[in-house]
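Troubleshooting log. The previous structure file for this entry was overwritten by mistake, so regenerating from the original sequence record. Sequence copied from the archived sheet and checked twice against the printout by T.R.
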Amino acid sequence: MTRAQRPVKGCELHPGKCGQCDEVFVRDLTTAPESFKADLRVGRRIRQEIDSGVFVECRQRPCEGQRWEAGGGMHRQCTRDCSAGSASSRRKRHHGDSAVRHNGGVPSPDSVPAFSFQFHTRLRDGKGVPEARIRENGGQFQARTGTITTPHGQIQTPAFIPVATQAAMKAVLPESMAAEGAQAMLANAYHLFLEPGDDVLDEAGGLSTFMNWPGPTFTDSGGFQVMSLGSGLGKVIDMSTGASPLGDSQMAPGQKRMARVDDDGVWFRSYLNGDLHRFTPEVSMRVQHNIGADIMFAFDELTTLHNTRAYQEVALERTRKWALRCVSEHHRLTQERAHKPYQALFGVIQGAQYEDLRRQACRDLSGMGFDGFGIGGALEKSQLGTIVRWCTEELPENTPKHLLGISEPDDIFTAIDNGVDTFDCVSPTRVARSSAVYSPTGRFNLTNIRFKRDFTPISDTCPCYTCTHYTRAYLRHLFKSKERNAATLASIHNERFVLDLVAGARAAIDDGTYFEYRDEFLGSYYGTTQPNI
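Regenerated output below.
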C-alpha cells in the first residue's frame, strides 16, 4: 500500500482519512447518534441523506479520489495520487481520462461520477395512486423522486432551487439557506458576465467557492435577460427589422431598444453602462464554463405568447441550431478544461403554447446528448400543466427535467405532478421584500394593523430561524420602520416554507401518500384541492 493509499486511523464515525489530501472517508451513518446528525445538518447540505442512510460525505466537498462501493454504504480509501505533483496536476491526472463525463457514463474504479441522475419512485407505477384518480386523469401522473449527483454534491428530487441571480440571494446569506435546507442555488450568467465578469469567477475557483456555497449550483444562459431587453414590455426583437413583434407602440414610453437578434446570436447593451456586447451560443458556453456551475443551460431564444405562430417556428429553429452549437462548444471546452470538475449541460425546450412545436423541440434536443433539459418560455398559468406534460412525455425518462421560473406554491404541485424534477423561483424573496409571507393557510401581509400586538411566530409549525426567534409584531415593526433586516427575516421564512413544502412532497411520493399531502396543502392554502394539472 502506498503512502497516498494508507488510511489514517479515525474515530468510530470516521474510519480514516487520506494521509496527504486530508479528506475524510465516512461510512453509513444510519446508526450515528442523533446529536452527531444534528451537528452535520447545521450549515451543510447533508440532511435527508443522513436520515435515509444515503450518506456520501461529511465535509463540504467530496474528495475527488473517493470511490463509492455500490450498495455497501461505505467509502473505500482514497485512491488519488497525492504523493507527487501540485494539486492541480493531481486533479488533472485523476479526472482527465475519466469515462464519467455525462449522465449514463460508467465510472472507472478510481473516479467519482461527475454527473448522474437516478429516479426512485414513480406515481404512475401505481404506488399511492387511487384507481379513480388514474381514470379521471388518463394515467397522466408522472410525479417521481430521484437523485441528481454533481461534483459538489447530490440533489434529492423533486427539489426547489432558490435563485441567487448575481451569486447572492436578495437579503439572505448562503449560510442561512444551507441551514434552512436548500440543496442548490441558481445564478444568472448574463448578470455575472457583466459584473464582476466570468473571468473573475473562474479565477476565484468557480461559483460555489466565490459565493461560499458548499452545494451544487446552476446557471441559466442569460437568454431570458438578453432577449427581454429588446422592448419596454419584455418582447422579443424581430430578427430582421429589430422591431418589437407588436410594433413600437407596444414599447414603454421612452424605452431605448437594447437588444437585436440574428441567426448567429444577440447584440445587446449593458444595462449598467451601455456598453455593446455580443452573445452567441459559443460565448454563452464560455461564460458558463468560466462561472463553473455544476449545471448549465444552453443558449436559447425566448419568445412570448404574443408572437405569431410563424415567428415561433422561426425562433424554435434558431434555438435548435443554437443548441447544436452549444453542445459542440461544450464538448470542446470540457476537453480543454479536463482538469476542472465536469459541468452538465441542459437543453432548453421552447415552442410557446403549441403542442406540435413543443413535442418537436423535445424530439430534436433529445438526440443531441444533453445531460438534462429545461422547460422554458412564457407560459400561461392555466396551460402550465398541459405544456409541461407534453414535454416530459417526449423527453428521455432517465434525464432530469427543470422548469425554469414558477411563481406560486400551487405551481410546485403542477410541476411535480407532471414529472418535473427541479424548479426555480424568485417569488419567495420577492414577495418577502414587500412584507408578504407564506403560511399553511395562505399568504398574508405583515404590515397589517392586526399584527401590531401579535406576539406569535409567522407559523407555529415552521422551524425556520425567523419563526423560532421572532414574532409577527416584531417583524411588522421592522417593516414599518423600514429596517433592512425585515426583508432578510421574511425571506428566510418564505424560502424555508417552500423548501419544506417540496421536501414533504418528496417524502409523500416515496411513502405513497402524495395525493393526501397535496390535497391537504391546497385545501388549506387556497381552499381548493384542484391543482392546475
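Residues 435-525 form one domain. Archived copy saved in two places this time.
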